[in-house]
């Protein structure tokens, strides 16, 4: 089998041919991305190179992209042109990379397409902006929304391909084309700057309106389709560069991400070991620090176990596991921190003192990131002089598996630090969502009423023995709490009660569970009984604890449990979540409503087919949700009281998403 590599040959004509070799389809794996960056940089800096041809080995250009950032092709001031020589296929990120070149020469049979929406994501490498500028808006939307591929002959007709040639002439013609661009005999223009294939703004809006109606019919519960259209529309309105992933005052101010060569992870527990695993899997060297050798060995063994689990599943080879482990080093002090570019702190306790130590031990450019999921970052960093470098990197457990990365910025976090963390997030195959700083941040704050709503249901209505299986929301909440253990729930309870006074559901259920010797799956006893090799079984004795919690709460109408139907169970648990999401949007904690949709699916397991928490809420209607919450608030208290934002949208008959 051919080795996975990127090669470059510089001809006497001054054309550098860069070839991707990653059988069978030349997928753009992290090592290929790194190789492309290296060869492009070398070509750009070489006085012998006038132009570049990018191609693939084995009769294929590239069949996929691993959601990373390949910056060299995107540079608007690149001093040398590039031409894509396409054969076989150019799909997903492969086609997006080809569209990033200044021209595309192809063999007749090559297959071209952007199938990302069928995989649950949008074209994230500029495809939503480049394709409409090359083939026109109607054809681009048809290809993306339906994940259609076309052959190169059709691509030439629409403008995606500049020339069709035989396989024998592919490299020769591509080299000539690249030199013609370099010598200004052919146009030298980025696809993001082209407007000749775009229709008028009014026509574009009509086309997009029709596309949204089509999406409502063919994919009503798929948030990626709407997100794709939003990205296309932003580019149509404000230019191609505006429609690529955008965070105001971060991605639109001319900054470029710095290279993160080495990361320190402080704490090798469940989260720290998961974060370290994700980093070394992306070829990022990691220094793992612990307070003593026993904890350090435990952390290193957890990382090895994470990798072994991936090998058993067939998603990682033994060789790649060994390579990843070679990038990991365990330490007991800060002596090797002088060369790290980012430090991630796992543990909630002692963060202030650790940050003070890191200030002294790390270089002045080092990013100081914390994995806290609730604590205000201003408090964490208040004793440092480096608050511009402090940022939240909230991973979701298990950190090497869960795809969401919640990036939390404060008013003092520098745009460069935010951009750098977004970049490292994509490099480790996470979906980064940038949010504001508040208690719980965006995701945990939005969903804290989920658990409280389940507690309400436990206390008010049901017993563990008789819960109908269709009441899946509360069953999953119970199991989630069992798996997570009750320590975190107890730790954050007072934080939420203090931050959101008057609108939390007051229950002593968790305290009573702990008092009775239950800590969930950790000790085999929670809402369920956990025995090795068996499925969790409901524990009948929990009913007595629920009954005691019910007595202490003393807020039931008439002092008796209520009877509610299946739909009301769902609504009583999720409508408070929607209500809190409204506050999160209203306060500007998230940039856009779709950030909450994506986060709810990728971070909290909200059903993908429902489209995300806000999307789902708008299918129900703000008026209905407001009326229900208002009714329950009168009976059961302020936990259900509608937010001002929800009340406003409902009163005006508007959806929750601001257009």
Question: How would you sum up this structure, described in words?
Answer:
This protein has 659 residues and is α/β, with parallel strands linked by helices. The protein has 25 helices and 19 strands. An eight-stranded mixed β-sheet has the order 12-11-10-13-14-15-16-17, with helices on both faces. Strands 1-2-3-4-6-9 form a six-stranded mixed β-sheet, sandwiched between helices. A hairpin with an 8-residue loop joins strand 15 and strand 16 (404-409). Helix 8 (201-218) runs antiparallel to helix 9, helix 16 packs across helix 17 and helix 24 crosses helix 25 (644-651). The radius of gyration is 27 Å and the shape is globular. The two termini are 52 Å apart. 46% of the residues are buried. Mean pLDDT is 86; it is low at 66-77 and 462-473. Pathway: Lipid metabolism; fatty acid beta-oxidation. This is enoyl-CoA hydratase.
Beta strands, count: 19
Low confidence ranges = 66-77, 462-473
**Strand line-up of the largest beta sheet:** 12-11-10-13-14-15-16-17
Oligomer: single chain
State the end-to-end distance: 52 Å
State the shape. Answer: globular
Strand fraction equals: 5-15%
The level of helicity is 40-55%
Structural class: alpha/beta
